[in-house]
Specification:
By secondary structure, the chain is mainly alpha-helical. It has 2 domains: 2-59, Integrase, DNA-binding domain (Double Stranded RNA Binding Domain, 2-Layer Sandwich), CATH 3.30.160; 63-160, DNA polymerase, domain 1 (Orthogonal Bundle), CATH 1.10.150. It contains 7 helices and 3 strands; from the N terminus they run βββααααααα. It has helices at 35-50, 63-75, 82-99, 109-121, 125-144, 154-160, 177-182, and strands spanning 2-4, 10-18, 21-29. A 3-stranded antiparallel sheet has the order 1-2-3, covered by helices on one side. The termini are far apart.
């Protein structure tokens, strides 16, 4: 349908029922979108809604897309290259292979646990921290941009991860008095 406002602006609008709720979707300004284009977009939206999908979700970015934007924003704030290098290594090697194609609004506790748990079991605690920080930053970026309604589940996952093995120290103790004074 064509909605004409009091000021004279005209907009193509489609009314759909998505998951039992009536929704009005804007298809664009009548000055910029032709009737044929609006009809094509409406047909695509109807097809998605008919199969149980939500045409509004198509606009939600994947983790990969959101991460690139978030990384570019963070890059401006870092004083050195070290945080950027650590972020890129952790995200490229561990996070993107598992979460890259997932829409940011569908990433939950189980998905984050699946990413961080193997690193914790391998004893890569610094990488767990870096990857967790990156995931939190991306999901917070998505919440700020209204792609997600809830915050990041990373802290809850970190609390449930396996801890360092007790009893054995990862550092070597020096027993010599000469060296002990320097430590």
């Amino acid at each position: 349908m064509l909605r004409v406002k009091a000021r004279g602006t005209r907009q193509w609008v489609q009314r759909l029922t998505i998951h039992g709720r009536r929704v009005d979707l804007g298809l664009g300004s009548a000055e910029l979108v032709s009737l044929a284009d609006a009809r094509r977009a409406a047909a695509d939206n109807r097809a998605i809604a008919r199969t149980g999908g939500d045409p509004r979700r198509v606009r939600v970015p994947t983790f990969d897309t959101a991460e690139k934007t978030c990384f570019a924003e963070k890059l401006e704030t870092w004083r050195t290259k070290s945080p950027a290098r650590n972020w890129r290594m952790a995200v490229d090697k561990y996070v993107l292979p598992k979460l890259g194609g997932v829409p940011v609004d569908r990433i939950g506790t189980a998905a984050v646990y699946e990413v961080l748990r193997p690193m914790a079991l391998a004893g890569k605690y610094a990488t767990v921290k870096t990857a967790g920080t990156a995931i939190t930053a991306v999901l917070d970026w998505a919440r700020i941009n209204e792609y997600r309604s809830e915050g990041s589940p990373v802290e809850a996952v970190r609390r449930s991860l396996p801890k360092r093995a007790a009893g054995r120290s990862t550092t070597t103790r020096c027993t010599s008095r000469r060296w002990a004074r320097r430590w």
